[in-house]
Amino acid sequence: MDSAAILAEIPRLRRYARALLGDRAAADDLVQDTLERAWSRASLWQAGSDLRAWLFSIMHNLRVDQLRRPEVATRAIAADEAELPTRATQSDRLEVRDLEAALRQLPEEQREVLLLVALEGSSYAEIAAALGIPTGTVMSRLARGRERLRLLLDGRQPGANLRVVR
Amino acid sequence: MSKLPITEADLHAYLDAELPAARRAEVEDYLAANPAEAERVRAWQAQKLELAALFAPVLDEPLPENLRALAAPPPAAVDVQKRPFLPGWSLQRLAAGLLVALLGGVGGWFVHARFEAADRQAQMMPLPRQAAVAHVVFSPDVRRPVEISAEQEDQLVAWLSKRLGTPVRPPRLGALGYELIGGRLLPGNSGPVAQFMYHDASGQRLTLYVTTENAANRDTGFRFAREGPVNVFYWIDGRFGYALSAGIDKGELARVASAVYDQLEHQ
Q1: Nearest residue of chain B to residue A4 (CA atoms)
Q2: What is the pLDDT of residues A106-160, one digit of tens each?
């Protein structure tokens, strides 16, 4: 495998992992695991085939393994975080927050497909190959995810949280 | 001449440019005649663009060094395809096992025992879960929460140190409002572990779980886990694993955890 080609894919892997998991540290951990697994299986990589598709499918399989594992979800805590104040992650743009919050409410299998289409511009056939599912399943997950997201975003009432309730 | 009805899947495929031209034209006609459907497709189109915009900035973030380094093969990268068959089984061991097997039934036992060991390894409970379970089992016990109470702290310390094979001593958390109730010995994944229990003035109980069975010897920083109603802070220091569990909020538990950590450091 070509280091330069891999280096070029890392930002896209990070973007997708971040969007999928929502958490920066967890996303970068997933990317790291993906790269390590890719190197450990370098001999399975067929020169000339689609490196990006291969890396994304490794990431997907790792994620599936993670979700299957009956371990408790844990995350590393930095020393300076010991007081654990709730970090202000609010964006100035309410819509952005709403979109991300709504995205989090989708089942991961729908989120995956939605993000691969929106971020990677992958075709349905490419997604089917990366996730190891039929194209029809890709389409139904996409349809359900998009519609759910639309309804979630429609349900938002701008300014509702500013109203004084007596 | 009759056209196939337009499906939900067609609408998405239209939006994602996955339709052949002829079908695309049919979907366009359909949308022109059905404004409500057109509105839905527009909403999907908008979320697609907004998602792309939302996460685009990640592409421009500088790469963390550990990820950049992994563009090249890691030094320890041994291709699984090239790994020796049955890692961990030396040839001599394998030969010895086979020899014993040939000599009699003991061989079967030998192999059986090895498999069993591997099996146990696979079933090891992670530290935070072990600690949380122990917390849930013993902390609600009003009459007998501990085996040896704080009144006999010397005995408690001597006994647990002896059983764990290394000096262990409960940290003092009085400054944080937590008094020692006592402690007990518990079975861990492969041997004895100790649990110390504390409570505050309101009766809120907190347990510190101490194991010495961390063979991997990989230190960690503080890690946090939630097991149902129980919050757990845990960390690994050499062969010691510590986990502090309580049904209190994360911030307060973090303060207690740092106090425990500091005391253990200066023990």
Answers
A1: B71
A2: 999 999 999 999 999 999 999 999 999 999 999 999 999 999 999 998 875 443 3
Q: Is the CATH number 1.10.10.10 carried by domain A89-161?
A: yes
Q: Tell me how close the Cα of B102 comes to any Cα of chain A, in angstroms.
A: 37
Instruction: Report the alpha-carbon distance of residue B181 to residue B206 in Å, rounded.
Output: 10
B42 touches chain A (CB under 8 A): no
Q: Which tokens hold the place of B52?
A: 């792309």
Gyration radius (Cα) of chain A, Å: 18
A127 in Cβ contact with A113 (< 8 Å)? yes
Fold (topology level) of B127-265:
Phosphorylase Kinase; domain 1 (3.30.200)
Burial of B114 (0-12, 13-18, 19+ CB in 10 A): middle
Dihedral sign (CA B48, A111, A150, A159): negative
Task: List C-alpha distances in Å: A3 to A10, A39, B67, B88, B181.
Answer: 11, 10, 12, 31, 58
Instruction: Kindly state the helix (H) or strand (E) to which residue B261 belongs, with its residue range.
Output: helix B250-265
When CB atoms are compared, the residue of B9, B223, B254 closest to A74 is B223
Residue B123: closest CA among B115, B131, B112: B115
Q: Burial, A82: exposed, middle or buried (Cβ in 10 Å; 0-12, 13-18, 19+)?
A: middle
pLDDT in tens, B202-249: 888 999 999 987 766 567 778 888 887 888 998 888 888 899 999 888
CB-based contact A92:B28 (threshold 8 Å): no
CA distance B86 to chain A (A): 17
Q: What residue type is B248 in one-letter code?
A: I
Name the residue with tokens 């440019």.
Answer: B17
Instruction: Name the pairing type of β-strands B205-211 and B192-199.
Output: antiparallel
Q: CATH number of the domain at A1-87, please?
A: 1.10.1740.10
Measured in angstroms, the CA of B48 and the nearest CA of chain A are apart by: 5
The reply to whether residue A32 touches residue B8, judged by beta carbons under 8 angstroms, is: no
Taking CB atoms and an 8 Å limit, are B254 and A153 in contact across chains?
A: no
The tens digit of pLDDT for each residue in B161-179 reads: 998 888 888 999 998 899 9
ipTM of this predicted complex? 0.80
Domain boundaries, chain B: 1-77, 94-123, 127-265
Domain boundaries, chain A: 1-87, 89-161
Which residues sit opposite B149 in a β-bridge?
B182
